[in-house]
């Protein structure tokens, strides 16, 4: 009679007999994409689910911004010339220099110069 430990298959042999099936599933790249029809999320509130078709109609109706408020880029430049002051810089609340802002905006480690940096700038001819 065979010893008991060889009579039964070892756990490693049982595991080897079964093919490994990964837990993640990769879609087939060559397969045709499945058609997608927009629908509300299953957990969406009932009022959104009921009004989803009207939402789709509004979304398909076109851009949802005021076209009259749009200006061409040339109109933003001063006098319509390249190099003019843009509309953002011409705003009344804009500042000319970062040091005109409160100290918390300009007194940061990235804007502080160390002595080594200042010496390097002063010595370089660039």
Can you tell me about this structure?
InterPro entries: Kgd4/YMR-31 (IPR020373). Keywords: Mitochondrion. Its main location: mitochondrion. Helices cover 33% and strands 0% of the residues. With 126 residues, it is mostly helical. It has a domain at 97-125.
Computed CA radius of gyration, to the nearest angstrom: 34 Å
Structural class: mainly alpha
Major pleated sheet: none
How many runs of DSSP E, i.e. beta strands? Answer: 0
Gross geometry? flat
How many helices does DSSP assign? 7
> What gap, in angstroms, lies between the N and C termini?
92 Å
Helix content: 25-40%
Provide mean pLDDT, rounded: 76
Query: In percent, how much strand structure appears in the residues?
Result: under 5%
Low-confidence stretches: none
Helix/strand order, N-terminal first: HHHHHHH
Short summary of the structure?
It holds the Pfam family Kgd4-YMR31. With 126 residues, this protein is an all-alpha fold.
Short descriptors:
126 residues; mainly alpha; 7 helices; flat
List the helices and strands and how they pair.
Blueprint: H1 4-7, H2 11-17, H3 46-50, H4 52-60, H5 73-76, H6 103-106, H7 115-123
InterPro entries: Kgd4/YMR-31
Organism: Tilletiopsis washingtonensis
Keywords: Mitochondrion
């Amino acid at each position: 009679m065979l010893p008991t430990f060889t009579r039964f298959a070892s756990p490693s042999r049982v595991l080897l007999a079964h093919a490994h099936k990964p837990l993640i599933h990769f879609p087939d790249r060559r397969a045709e994409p499945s058609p997608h029809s927009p629908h509300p999320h299953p957990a969406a509130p009932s009022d959104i689910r009921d009004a989803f078709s009207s939402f789709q109609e509004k979304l398909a109706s076109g851009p949802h911004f005021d076209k009259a408020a749009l200006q061409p880029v040339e109109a933003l430049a001063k006098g319509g010339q390249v190099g003019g002051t843009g509309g953002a810089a011409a705003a009344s609340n804009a500042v000319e220099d970062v040091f005109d802002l409160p100290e918390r905006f300009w007194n940061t480690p990235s804007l502080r110069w160390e002595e080594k940096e200042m010496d390097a700038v002063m010595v370089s001819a660039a």
